Automatic annotation (TrEMBL), chains A, B:
Reactions it catalyzes: (2R,3S)-3-isopropylmalate + NAD(+) = 4-methyl-2-oxopentanoate + CO2 + NADH
Complex formation: Homodimer.
Major place of residence: cytoplasm
Boundaries of every Isopropylmalate dehydrogenase-like domain copy: 5-361
Residues where Mg(2+) binds: D226, D250, D254
Protein's job: Catalyzes the oxidation of 3-carboxy-2-hydroxy-4-methylpentanoate (3-isopropylmalate) to 3-carboxy-4-methyl-2-oxopentanoate. The product decarboxylates to 4-methyl-2 oxopentanoate.
Natural source organism: Bradyrhizobium ivorense
InterPro entries per the UniProt record, alphabetical: IsoCit/isopropylmalate_DH_CS, IsoPropMal-DH-like_dom, Isopropylmalate_DH
Family annotation (Pfam families): Iso_dh
Listed name of the protein: 3-isopropylmalate dehydrogenase
Similarity remark: Belongs to the isocitrate and isopropylmalate dehydrogenases family. LeuB type 1 subfamily.
Recorded GO CC terms: cytosol
GO molecular function, one term: NAD binding
Length: 365, 365
């Protein structure tokens, strides 16, 4: 059996608590002989800043580069609101994405039937919702240069951010979206603002070309990002796969996550290109939720998004799709049994701590 | 009685139909001696392209500059999807905003009680919703340079858009937001992505400074634009005034509009700076909805957003707040009476065409 090297980066806030439940699952898989994972731990975000005054150390970057997959918790919190911009907690995550070339961010937004009522949307609008947001993650305004604040004198400053996209960046994220759609409901909706942004014009043009050249069997639809956002709120079930740039993806995937009423449940995968020789791709898996400093350390956090992110690692990095299905089924079964962490509590449900939820999922497995 | 000069720019799609209902209202106000409006008409968007191969002619720009207020319908449609970028329908609207210095875009998102059930959100989440989005409208990625597509050879192109904000631009839009909050529930939420964008860092810094210097009596809160979007979907009633940049404002105001279930009802105002001498400000008023080419020319369009936009003109450009209140009350009364255009139809309601709705509001006045 192949040994897989995992780097665990719990980060800040509830990160360590939810990561502990993944560690429990890994230990069990190893003990049962179901898989062979070697894990290392590292520091990222505020935790790295407190230890080394950086958002991630060179040592941990080296571990990240060597790992077969990175399991990432969450970063940030008011404690680090005043640290210099270059070493703010988020910088560690952004560096991992950029330096490891993790250009494809997959964010499924799924409404668990047991939780449909937790959505602020009407049950009929979200019940059965299952969409996949494919967000470009290493380009756009996140990394474009210049990115500066200049003092103009007279009390005036000028801030500049630059949105840049090259053809190949749009092509490769398009292919990820079309490939996923083929395994789903065969429809891709591309979102941009071509009526205002040149990057939107190019985005639209390249998606159209990739589709015409390689994916005629998939339905491609274009929506402006603003009306796309509207449609997401109005009638989300019209979508299958949504592909969009880094910044629109940030907004739209958060909104999609909120629609489901299951924010604490949603995983994400960030993938690099497949290496022609090794057939491997770098990858990082993280929950969609943040570090939730307000509830950190209290055993209140929902570990499902984190465990489910590990499930995505099994599926996308280790070709263990069946095991991933079992993890998903265990989560669904535990929810159906009525167990609930505080964020998803409802009348008649059984309250569970972070640990109790993690243990219940393991037992179900 | 002062004479007010209005430029009517109906534009494309349903624009002319809904504008006709404003014209009807203006004629009546003139005939009754309640006000004295002089109106001119101009072409914008696809209509201008069809006539002159531009998105707005120099002649109409001159009229716009000379007018006391511009009443704008909507632009765009599939008919003009393939026209050159520089003369696409939206360019006319963008030029009006930029050349007239209309930096402050006010977008109220109000949930009419009679329509709460039309929202995809649960009634309790949106009933009574009344928020004001203040969007910066002449800066940011909409107008920053460079804004280019370059051919790199080898089938590769590079698209660049530039987000630029200067201190004074953030200060003046901040003041608009704080001033509005003072007349409302005294709370401003500023949204940006300071964890990723330098313009977000400056935006946050300047808002904080303006608040500390001039508006200590107002509550100021900062949210990241992605979690702000989430909160808008989860619990919109937590907001009073939201102030944000051009692109985030585009997305967030559309989402807020959709929450209300009343997209066909929502007006907007775009205002310039107050002239020190004349005390006047340039202004443009337009519905939040688009040109809806699919229903154009069928008498199906809802004229309420357009009429309500004219109401905002009365309030913000002509100091006729009382008359504006009467227009709002007439709209509410007609809705309460059960009259509905197709977009807001519901069981037991009386169906109305565009014209019937316009006439009913006039009768109510
Ligand atoms: C933490 C932050 C830098 C990040 C982003 O903006 O990408 C987060 O919001 C996300 O969506 O993963
Ligand atoms: C038509 C388009 C250019 C415009 C914008 O993006 O600002 C519209 O979406 C709006 O919100 O007024």
């Amino acid at each position: 059996m192949a040994t897989h090297k995992l780097l665990l980066l719990p980060g800040d806030g509830i990160g360590p608590e939810v990561m502990a439940e993944v560690q429990r699952l890994i230990d069990w898989l190893n003990a049962q002989g179901i898989a062979k994972f070697e894990t290392e731990q590292g520091l990222v975000g505020g935790a790295a800043y407190d230890a080394h005054k950086v958002s991630i150390s060179e040592g941990d970057m080296a571990k990240a580069t060597a790992a077969d997959a990175i399991i990432f918790g969450a970063v940030g919190g008011p404690k680090w609101d005043a640290v210099p911009y270059e070493v703010r907690p988020e910088a560690g995550l952004l560096r991992l994405r950029k330096d490891l070339g993790l250009f494809a961010n997959l964010r499924p937004a799924v409404c668990y039937p047991a939780l449909a009522d937790a959505s602020s949307l009407k049950r009929e609008a979200v019940e059965g919702l299952d969409i996949m947001i494919v967000r470009e993650l290493t380009g756009g305004v996140y990394f474009g240069e210049p990115k500066t604040i200049t003092d103009l004198g007279n009390g005036q400053k000028r801030a500049v951010d630059t949105q840049v996209y090259d053809t190949y960046e749009i092509e490769r994220i398009g292919r990820v979206a079309f490939d996923l759609a083929r395994k789903r409901r065969n429809k891709v909706t591309s979102m941009e603002k071509r009526n205002v942004m040149k990057s939107g014009v190019l985005w639209n043009e390249v998606m159209t070309a990739v589709h015409a050249r390689e994916y005629k069997d998939v339905t491609l639809e274009h929506q402006l990002a603003d009306s796309g956002g509207m449609n997401l709120v109005k009638a989300p079930k019209q979508f299958d796969v949504i592909v969009t740039d880094n910044l629109f993806g940030d907004m739209l995937s958060d909104i999609a996550a909120m629609l489901t009423g299951s924010l604490g449940m949603l995983p994400s995968a960030s993938l690099g290109e497949v290496d022609a020789k090794t057939k491997k791709r770098r990858s990082l898996f993280e929950p969609v939720h943040g570090s939730a400093p307000d509830i950190a350390g209290k055993g209140l956090a929902n570990p499902i998004a984190m465990i489910s992110s590990f499930g995505m690692a099994l599926r996308y990095s280790f070709d263990m799709g069946e095991l991933a299905d079992k993890v998903d089924a265990a989560i669904a079964a535990v929810l159906a049994s009525g167990l609930r962490t505080a964020d998803i509590k409802s009348e008649g449900a059984t309250a569970a701590s972070t640990t109790q939820m993690g243990e219940a999922i393991l037992k179900e497995l």
